[in-house]
Every structure is written in C-alpha cells, then in structure tokens.
Design a protein that fits this description.
With 425 residues, the chain is α+β, with helices and mostly antiparallel strands. The chain has 3 domains: 16-174, Alpha-Beta Complex (Hect, E3 ligase catalytic domain fold), CATH 3.90.1750.20; 196-260 and 345-422, no CATH class; 275-333, no CATH class. Helix content is 49%, strand content 14%. The protein contains 13 helices and 15 strands. The protein has helices at 2-22, 55-69, 74-83, 96-100, 158-174, 176-193, 224-229, 240-255, 261-305, 311-333, 345-359, 366-376, 398-402; strands at 34-36, 39-40, 46-47, 51-53, 118-121, 124-128, 135-139, 146-149, 204-206, 213-217, 220-223, 238-239, 379-384, 390-396, 417-422. The protein has a 4-stranded mixed β-sheet with strand order 9-13-14-15. The protein has a 3-stranded antiparallel β-sheet with strand order 10-11-12. A hairpin with a 5-residue loop joins strand 13 (379-384) and strand 14 (390-396). Helix 11 (345-359) packs across helix 12 (366-376). The chain is flat and about 90 Å long. It starts with a helix and ends with a strand.
Length: 425
C-alpha cells in the first residue's frame, strides 16, 4: 500500500512539474547565471519556478562561451576564472567539468540550452541500481523531452552558441577513435576486475590544499585542484602502481612487522569493551527506572479515575513527570550502542594485509580486497618532498591510530606511516 502511494505521488509530482515547465517556469534546480524570483499569489502562497538573470554571472557565461569558441580549453578557462577570483556555481572554485559537462546529458555551462532562451526538462530519470541500491540517472529519449521558449532568460545569442557547438564537434571528431577505444577498454577492465577504477579511489588527498588526488592520466595521480582548477600549487604527480605498492608496503610494515600491534589492539579492545559495558549497564538501569516511574504515574491516574483523589497526588505526579523527563533526556543523549571489538582483530587485519597483493588482480577477490583496504586506511595524504619529483605519502586510519593507544605519551604522528616516493618523470 505504501509503495503504491509513493508511486502515485511521484506521478502527480511529475505531472505538476511538467505543467510548470510548459508555462515557462523552472522545474528543477537553479542554474548558474540565474536567481529565484520570489512572488506570491493572491492567497499568499509562493509562486514557484520563476527565474531572472544575474547580470554579473551572465557576463561570466558569455566569457566562457567566447573563450571556448576561440580555442581555449575548459581547464584553462577554469584556471583563469579562479585566478581572477570569480566564484563558480554554488560559490565554489571553477573546474573544467563545470564548464565542459556532458553534451548528451545537457550538463555543464557549454551545454545548457537555457542560456539560449530554451528551457529543456525531462532529459533524464532516476532509477535504483539493483547491485548497489543507489539512485542513478538514465537518459530519456529526446521524444520525451519538454522544450519551452523563455526568451527573457537568454544569455548567449545564437551565433555564440553555434560557435561553441562547432568547436565541440571538432574536438569530438578529432578524438572520436581514441575516446571510443579508451571507453571500451575501461569498461572491459572494470567488468573483468569488478573493483574500483583504482585500489586507492577516494582515499588520496593533497597535503597542500586538502583536496582530492585523482587520476589525471590513465595511470597517474595528481591534485585535482591544481590540474583542473589551478587553485593549488602542488604539481607533483605519481604513478598509480607505485603509490599502491608503497601503501601496501607501509601497511605490511606497520600491521604485520610491528611488535606492538597485538598489545596495542588488545588494550584498545579492552577499553572499548569496558566503555560498552558501562553504557549498556546505564541503559538497562534507565530502562527499568523509566518503567517504574511510568507505572507510578499510571497508578495515580487510575486512583483519580476511581474517585480517590488526594491533594498530595498532584505534587507526586509532578515529581514523577520530572523524573520521567530527566530519564528520557539521558536516554536520548546516550551514545548509540556499538559492537564489541573482537579480541583477535589484530590477527584478522594482519591476514588481510598479507593476502592483499595476491588477490587484488583476481576477478573474484579483487573487489573484496579493495573494500577491505578502505577499512584499514582512512586517508592517504600526498605532499611534495624537498627533492625534485619527491612525493611524501602519509597513511592515516582508525587502526593506525589504535596502534598508539598503548603509547599515549608518544608523538601523535606515530599513528601515521610516512613513506617517500619518487615521482616518475
């Protein structure tokens, strides 16, 4: 019943948005270059979907189209906008993807038809991926798109729009064979390996700006804020295989060879489990106390209903209500119960680390190994070294911090694995 209700509600919402778009009003989020117009109807209800141009942002949009049409790359455009201190969408730094977007999906500054005075809606739909449970977008056929002319929202004229489209087509034709080959190879590789694009996907960060390190070439990591936005000076890059090797070596050195592992984890497990026992004991005591108070309150109510009211009952009821509120407040603020730490967790992690290199390239076990690595490493911070091409990698994670538990007086950095890696030219 609930599922049918939600499905019916979704259909009504879709019809409502379609009707709004057909009237020339926005049916989705706010695009860069525009702001919401706040109006109300005769009944005081807000009128939704009205937009107007933000003049200073419209100038930036036209600048992007002019520079791209004249031969400037999205990466260079983004870097120059950031150097000029011009905030990007949502006030963030500009990135090449914000400008380039995805042509077939109509995303990115260069593909947004609203800048030509045409509102396009229903380009895509969202469905749940059965393998991950996450919502993913799927393109709708063009016959289902809704187009509405909104000339008052035009920012780029037809000549400028067509010039940008012509350059996009030139680029697509120039790299068509290469792009198709890379996509096919990547799809086959991911399907065969059934694991993330990289073992360290999502774990690498820049020690200079705090942003993400990502694949800027097929097998080389670099700071995305430097290479895509020009907002960071960290130009050091590192080969994927080399940083993966160093991370695994660091984990082995720290989790397999360190003599303090067993003792540190044992002490940590004992302390965490002791805290768990105290929390559970307090929770049980509060539960029993609450039951007792509620029984007493119920007894007073029954007595009053039976005609046995006494003036003292009022004061007693108020005191019981105060106790009940105090107990419930304490229960609401209590930390959530967490599972006890297994006493053999050190051995479990050691075994995982030892077999990493053996299963990473295995189509069946590779994904599990990559997921297990995320449980060991919270973050890998990459910073420039003092030597030319040198990259310093620091491993940070919960278990690495646990190793310091038995030695709290030592330098906090002992929980990190520091390795120096030479970046290949």
């Amino acid at each position: 019943m609930n599922a049918l209700f939600l499905k019916d509600l979704a259909k009504k919402t879709h019809r409502g948005l379609r009707g709004r778009v057909e009237k020339g009003k926005a049916g989705g989020g706010l695009c860069y270059g525009y702001r919401v117009v706040k109006k109300t109807d005769s009944g005081g209800e807000p009128i939704r979907g009205d937009r107007e141009i933000v003049p200073e942002q419209a100038e930036v949009v036209r600048r992007i189209f002019h520079e791209f049409a004249s031969g400037k790359s999205p990466k260079a455009i983004a870097a120059d906008l950031n150097k000029d201190g011009i905030p990007g969408p949502l006030g963030r730094a500009w990135g090449d993807t914000s400008i380039r977007g995805h042509a077939s999906r109509g995303t990115g500054i260069l593909n947004n038809e609203l800048y030509t005075g045409v509102l396009v809606w229903n380009r895509q739909r969202f469905v749940k991926d059965p393998s991950t449970g996450k919502r993913v977008s799927r393109p709708n056929p063009e016959s289902e798109w809704i187009r509405t002319e909104v000339p008052h929202l035009r920012i780029a004229d037809d000549e400028l729009w067509q010039a940008a489209k012509a350059r996009q087509q030139q680029i697509a034709m120039l790299f068509e064979t290469t792009t198709a080959g890379m996509r096919e190879a990547r799809a086959k590789r991911l399907h065969a390996a059934r694991r993330p694009v990289s073992l360290l996907s999502g774990l690498l960060s820049c020690g200079c700006c705090g942003g993400k390190y990502g694949l800027i070439l097929r097998d080389r990591f670099g700071c995305l804020n430097h290479h895509r936005r020009g907002t960071c000076n960290n130009n050091r890059t590192i080969v994927r295989a080399r940083i993966e090797e160093r991370v695994l070596s660091g984990l082995k050195d720290r989790l397999v060879c360190a003599e303090s592992v067993a003792e540190a984890v044992r002490a940590y497990a004992e302390e965490m489990n002791r805290l768990n026992r105290e929390r559970r004991a307090q929770a049980e005591a509060d539960r029993k106390a609450l039951e007792k108070v509620e029984r007493a309150i119920a007894g007073i109510i029954v007595a009053i209903e039976d005609g046995m009211y006494q003036p003292v009952m009022k004061a007693r009821a108020e005191e019981l209500e105060r106790q009940k509120a105090e107990i419930m407040g304490r229960m609401a603020e209590a930390p959530a119960d967490v599972p006890d730490v297994h006493p053999n967790i050190a051995t479990i992690y050691r075994i995982r680390v030892v077999v990493f290199t053996e299963v990473l390239n295995d189509p069946v076990g590779g994904r599990e190994a990559a997921e297990a690595l995320c449980s060991l490493v919270g973050e890998v911070v990459l910073s420039p070294g003092s030597k030319r091409g040198e990259v310093i990698a620091e491993l940070r994670g919960e278990l690495l911090g646990i190793l310091d538990f038995a030695n709290p007086r030592q330098d906090h950095r002992i929980g990190e694995v520091r390795t120096k890696v030479e970046a290949s030219p």
